[in-house]
Amino acid sequence: MLRFFDLERIDAVKRDVVVRIKDFDEIYEIFRSDKASEQADRCIQCGDPYCHNGCPLHNFIPHWLKRTAEEDLELAFRLSNESSPFPEVMGRICPHDRLCEGSCTLNDGYGAITIGSIETFISEEGFKKGLRPRFAEKKIGKKVAIVGAGPAGLSVATFLLREGIDVEIFDRQSRPGGLLTYGIPGFKLNKNVIQRRVVQLEEAGAVFHLDTEIGKEIPFEKLVENYDAVFLGTGATKGRRPGINGEDAKGCYLAMEYLVNVQKRLFDEPVDDVIDVKGKRVVVIGGGDTAMDCVRTALREKAAEVKCLYRRDAHNMPGSRKEYINAKEEGVEFEFYTSPKEVLRNEHGEVIGVEMVKTRLGEPDASGRQRVEEIPGSEFTVPADVVIFALGFDPVAYPFLAENGIETDKWGGIVVDENYETTKAGVYAGGDCHRGADLVVTAVRDGREAARAMAKKLIAGK
Predict the structure, then answer these.
(1) Coil/strand/helix, residue 47
(2) Which pLDDT score, from 0 to 100, does residue 1 have?
(3) 209-to-172, 206, 340, 341, 456 alpha-carbon distances in Å
(4) pTM tops 0.90, yes or no
């Protein structure tokens, strides 16, 4: 260890930009064994590891880095999977520059350990060598219903199965994974990676009920009646619009509406209306990772021109720095300090452009973040055929919540206590439906902690 003096930080190799924008395959290559070991060997094994504290899951990062450096793949695999339900997913999609790598001591002059790439390597190489995550072989005779097969739901299923608790997972889509399957494009996360974990859960006893929406096909009350506990992991799928004139014009879409439409077509699943951007001028409004997913998808869908408009600057974008860099490499144009005023339409109600106004940063608000101020008289027009709003998401107010006494807060998030239990006994919730749109890793942590709380209660009540 401690080889950071001799070895510089090396990032995973990216596929050539000219090649990668022609398909939806992952752009990053997996580390080779020697490169993973070498990069892990740079870790200084801090007495108080900031990377561990910077990770919402509090993964045992220094421990599996040490084992990777020593080429003890089996122990590295076990340690990596101990605290995370699917580390090969988090290694691909987490904003490491804001979390574990952003907290790394070596950031000060040497370059952080490439934690995400090593995390991905451990699982991928482990699977290749025949290693598998461990689940309880003996069942305890309890069963939990999970509503939503997204990150939080799959995390709950993983940790309950480890405790010998049976799970049945209900999801309205045709495939499990939620955001991981339909919302995050394949160039960031190959869909076979999710399917592999789903198969492992099924082998451990999980039962999936797909194309099944709770509250429609199955009453929520049936779950409460027939299961020992219920977990709600329905996410935050209600997209936000900017509240401007013309936002409902033909050619205006919400980010997730667009991403899901494209992914379903790639799966050869039916869609109501194909969102076609080929040969068109696409404008995406927003600056987070979802906005980056949209602009990069539009390029692969052969849009003639793709622009991203954001009201702050690149430094203040809420998403991962690497996703912004990837988008720039692939040909996305960025215009900062600009905010939408109106979507312009032709006589047929179709989008022809967006009227924008220049902005500047003013005094900090209550959160400490600088306010955005419009500059009077600075309006200008950006031509567009398609406009995609990537402005965040809110939880959906499903009728069965209020009907069953499950309280929500003023933002629509499901209220839970310290054990993730809602205001209805035996019903738990976590992830975006509880806290609003947040990181995948946060939803995964909620799922893990809710599973532990449920398991403790169910095992005690055997």
Answers:
(1) coil
(2) 61
(3) 8, 10, 42, 44, 26
(4) yes
